[in-house]
Give the backbone structure.
Amino acid sequence: MTENSLQQIMNPRSIVFFGASNNILTMGTAQLLNILKEGYQGEVFAVHPTEEKVLGLKTYKSVSALPRSVDLAVMVLPTRIVPKILSECGRKGIKSAIIISGGFREVGEVGEELQDEIVSVARKHGIRFLGPNCIGVLNAHRKFNSTWFPYGQEPGRIGLASQSGTYVCHTFGHLSRLGIRLSQAISVGNEADIDLVEAIEYLANDTQTRVIALYIEGIRKGREFVKLASEITTAKPIVALYVGGSKVGARASYSHTAALSGPDELYDGVFRQAGVIRAQTIEELFDLSWALATQPLPKGKEVAIVTNSGGVGVSMADACIRWRLDVPRLSESTQKRIREFIPHTASSQNPVDLTFMIDVDAFFGRITKALLEDPEINGILIYGVFGPLAFKKMKELAGDLLDIPFEQIELVQRDVLKKFIGLLQRYGKPVLGCSFLGRDDSIIALLQDSGIPFYPSPERAVKAMAALFQYARIRARRKG
Amino acid sequence: MTENSLQQIMNPRSIVFFGASNNILTMGTAQLLNILKEGYQGEVFAVHPTEEKVLGLKTYKSVSALPRSVDLAVMVLPTRIVPKILSECGRKGIKSAIIISGGFREVGEVGEELQDEIVSVARKHGIRFLGPNCIGVLNAHRKFNSTWFPYGQEPGRIGLASQSGTYVCHTFGHLSRLGIRLSQAISVGNEADIDLVEAIEYLANDTQTRVIALYIEGIRKGREFVKLASEITTAKPIVALYVGGSKVGARASYSHTAALSGPDELYDGVFRQAGVIRAQTIEELFDLSWALATQPLPKGKEVAIVTNSGGVGVSMADACIRWRLDVPRLSESTQKRIREFIPHTASSQNPVDLTFMIDVDAFFGRITKALLEDPEINGILIYGVFGPLAFKKMKELAGDLLDIPFEQIELVQRDVLKKFIGLLQRYGKPVLGCSFLGRDDSIIALLQDSGIPFYPSPERAVKAMAALFQYARIRARRKG
């Protein structure tokens, strides 16, 4: 097997950048800034026709002037000069490129000719390239971010390949607010050379990536996609959002990246055949991937809900049934264990509704342990973690009126939670949570950063749990 | 017509509070804190058997010791003493109460007897009460918050009635992060006296409330609900989330608030008959209400999408079709107007895809104006507002390398947006946006606070637009 074309693009030891200046309002400048300042360890050169320095970096007038060749060329240049610069890169011995510039096939006939031209230049020089009309890539494990938005958080286990650049950069802030982390992200753009299928293949082989998330407007190589995805999904889950199914969606996506769309039902069939889990929205694409990237798979569809809010318990239970999970009444022996720790107004049936109870030790230690040890329960949904945030807010209101030891609350909770996280690892059952506080609460952030997704709504947590079960079934079926 | 029973509960001139101490870990203390410190202007008394002062407030040993009667009693007391205290309140001449304590009908037989007892005490003294087993109320316009979570933001136009207390307080932080504001919120609990139907009636008559949002586990008075909702929805939209439809949901909701649930299809029929818009998730309940609380209704289902991200444009277009909105190709004359201001790589068809373009003046001033003036377009979906946040993040990376005038960017944008907001008011067409930056970006916060919802995902913005059109049709049908 030849090395995947993206190997070098995602892991370059050296880069030459075209199209950055000292004006932050141009996209190229922001992109070079991220490459330079987000921790990338390789060598970076900048080419600029007039500026002496760009972002503090000495520039070269042209690629031919570089002291040596590099692994990767990144270009954000006016459309018309791309073929010429690409050709110069070829002559310098550069074998990989990211062409960010737009104005090619997606704009019609003139662009089509230009796109054909860069393909033939690339073939001539043996260059493999991503784009044109893409936003570039992120390799979070190497802190290499060629997009224009800072990634700004730790690497994760979700590998993303997208026919939209937005979902590979605008979403970074959104994801970090939610606590969702990426391993790799690839914006494929017009796919004039490297396409979605190759990107999927790269992510399949990337050991940092545990789940592949796809944003699809239209697959160019249907047969290859099905064959490859079918192989991958026996070992690694794939979640896909497809949006080209309607007539308007198709028109919009054609003018976006010139991809060819097909009817929704066709894609439903393709995904089913290949064992791909279909997401319905961009939020869902990340939500489901998050659970799949962090949780063990459930052995059955029976879940327990533990909550200190009745309403969230009912919402979760209802969503479980809607998405084909079971919420069985707990066995007498498990209920007996749980009843020791809960108030008389609480319910031990399932949902386990603790009512207003903030004893994290009982919540996470003993009650969750009873559920983890129940052989009839294959997954747990949690609501009711309140770290220091609420108390901090109360302290702001209370001023000197009350002593609210929120720092101490946090310390005690951290201690309990560390044990809890250890507990989870012993039982190998998936645990997902919901919190309306989000990462503003440091305890929620701690849980998320320890690999336990907490979603901003009960239904989103349930749907992610359903995806875990869906993938468990897919894998069982495929393994025969 | 007699005055609605909630009028006094939601607008008390004076309150007596039972069950607060100086320990913030008890719910009552947190609740009294919010009453005292979130800006409520009425008189507040506290009753406590042993403490001299609670939260700085001089206490009374019993309600009989108060210098005069009050409008409202709020109690967070051990279940068994509630009937006695309620009776004492009655003897003092108090006519309204919020009973937060749980342990009544929702826990079985013993609780049922106690619940019957408080009902008969209340009847005897002519007391109307909310609860038991509720979280209390919020009247944001009067800064009266009797729940245990601080509300902490400006009042809005969404009136919420909920059979779960969680959605009337845990969600406050979540909503303020999204920019969604409430006018009133009512947790009805076990509905032993005042029920959901009365809460809806109160919200219907409240002039601060433009849309009624309902969280329902089971409606006790089906016929009254349909009759009342049918009347209200001719003038004010109602959005409802119903979660008691499955067997498990029903079991969970019974042990939660002892409400009786019915099959999902039954509720579908009830909502359709009454002109109520059904939400599928708690996020959707607030999302749809947000649009209905702030936007004019569209005259037809044709929307224009304006975006600087192709991917978001396609996602929005696809979601429009899924939820039965139209995204027609724009007329030649409108396209001609738009093409003046956009790059050659951009598309003027619809979605109007501006590609990478950050000229807010063109975006908000001229392009949106062309769409507002197009008689074939009845609503606008926007993506692509980037205020100072991204630039701030870049400045953090760049340090001294670059001068990034993000404060100036913000000033210019504020200016443009103020004009934009004025423009919107002239045309009376709904405008909804999507941003992955959220309120961390001050320009998004400004737009939201000016009454233009920006949702955290393209599909959520589209679904809210679809709800506007759905309600426009409901209203047209009902008015005949």
Summary: The radius of gyration of chain A is 25 Å. Residues 406-427 of chain A form the longest helix (22 residues).
